[in-house]
From TrEMBL:
Keywords: Guanine-nucleotide releasing factor
UniProt name for this protein: PRONE domain-containing protein
Domain PRONE: from-to ranges: 1-350
Record InterPro entries: PRONE_dom, RopGEF
Molecular-function GO term, any one: guanyl-nucleotide exchange factor activity
Superkingdom as given in the UniProt entry: Eukaryota
Keyword Metal-binding: no
Keyword match Transmembrane: no
């Protein structure tokens, strides 16, 4: 009965009223797999085995959704007798290769959590701002995630090596899931709705400062990333959005078969566009691996929402939730390793806490600026004239220009 309910919802595109306003089958299946993982795993808080009933439910329901891929087939020639060849059906190649691989990665993650059963060298306590030992390793306030506590002199050498081996194993799972997810997203077509929202050239998408850096004769991706502001997830995602938009623009201009290419101008040679696109792709690759837990870009979200290929939807959503779970497990292992480092080197922990407190004080001071201070209008001493002049200006800045103007000299992405 539960399976009937799940699949009837998929067939109706999540519109249980039957009014025909549901989403595509591919998106409905993608949402179903994503929602199932969210209800099972949520945000992983501790390194501990999954409950037996929860594990059974996960195995049963994810297999329901993955079973759809068994019926996505292609025709292939097959020998019939000595001199006859007929066409037979076989599961589509990408599904045949990647579904078993993802199932194995899934099992490896659950086995890793099972390995922490019975360990007695660290435990968890609720986060308390007044407790110095509860300082988050990266300064991010997540009060709902408990803090690991280790012995006063740190973990034993054997436990430390064992935890590092678990970390290495999870890192391999994360890399494999990321690779499959990136491959599937790359195979999805860029939706027309996304293309229609783009500016006409890469310079307008990137902004003047970022564009100059990427098109400079002496380009170094690491130096570029050190020169831009990547202090928050919002800024990282915004940079990804700009880079991906520019890549799409340059690819369209390089594609001579594109019927709309004449409307996109031709101010830069094809060779240079190819070079710029390669540089942008390099930065995107580094960002993906440097910040694996970052939110999806606008292009990825639009591809998922507009995708009509059910096979791609299954592979993308399944690899994405495995990637997310692997990142969560890796983060919880990092929490334990950080607690161990702080226990063995208390002075370094105190210096780090002082640095985090100083950074928070600066952020608090900056947040006290008024909206008028942020915009740059001063209503005292001639500010009223500036306000009137601003109202009288006919030119409306674009969204990209507003983003650029917010950053000052070195514009933040």
């Amino acid at each position: 009965e539960l399976m009937k309910e799940r699949f009837s919802k998929l067939l109706l595109g999540e519109d249980m009223s039957g009014g025909g306003k549901g989403v595509s089958s591919a998106l409905a299946l993608s949402n179903a797999i994503t929602n199932l993982a969210a209800s099972i795993f949520g945000e992983l808080k501790k390194l501990e085995p999954m409950g037996a009933e929860t594990k059974v439910r996960w195995r049963k329901e994810i297999d329901w959704y993955l079973s759809v891929s068994d019926h996505i087939v292609q025709f292939v020639p097959s020998k019939h007798g000595s001199n006859m060849e007929i066409m037979v059906t076989k599961q589509r190649t990408d599904l045949q290769m990647n579904i078993p691989a993802l199932k194995k990665l899934d099992a490896m993650l659950l086995d890793c959590l099972d390995n922490f059963k019975g360990q007695n060298e660290f435990h968890y306590v609720s986060r308390d701002e007044n407790d110095e030992s509860a300082t988050n390793r990266n300064g991010v306030e997540k009060w709902w995630i408990p803090v690991p506590q280790v012995p006063a002199d740190g973990l034993s050498e054997g436990t430390r090596k064992w935890i590092q081996s678990q970390k290495d194993s999870v890192s391999q799972v994360l890399k494999a899931a990321m690779a499959i997810n990136a491959q599937v997203l790359a195979e999805m077509e860029v939706p027309e709705t996304y293309i229609d929202s783009l500016p006409k050239n890469g310079r307008a998408s990137l902004g003047e400062t970022v564009y100059r850096s990427i098109t400079d004769e002496h380009f170094d991706p690491e130096h570029f990333l050190s020169s831009v502001d990547l202090s928050s997830e919002h800024k990282i995602v915004d940079l990804k959005n700009r880079l991906e938009a520019s890549v799409v623009i340059w690819k369209r201009k390089m594609n001579s078969k594109d019927a709309k290419s004449s409307a996109w101008g031709s101010g830069v040679s094809l060779e240079k566009r190819e070079l710029f696109e390669e540089r942008a792709q390099t930065i995107l690759f580094i960002l993906k691996h440097k910040f694996p837990g970052i939110a999806q870009s606008d292009l990825d979200i639009t591809k998922i929402q507009c995708n009509r290929d059910v096979g791609h939807a299954i592979l993308e959503s399944y690899s994405r939730i495995i990637e997310s779970l692997a990142f969560s497990v890796s983060s919880r292992i990092d929490d334990v390793m950080h607690a161990d480092t702080m226990a063995r080197n208390p002075s370094a922990g105190r210096r780090r806490r002082d640095k985090l407190l100083l950074e928070r004080e600066k952020e608090t001071a900056n947040s006290k600026a008024t909206l008028l201070d942020f915009i740059g209008w001063n209503l005292q001493g001639g500010g009223e004239d500036e306000l009137l002049n601003a109202k009288a200006t006919n030119k409306k800045p674009t969204h990209i220009e507003r983003l650029e103007n917010l950053g000052g000299g070195m514009r933040s992405p």
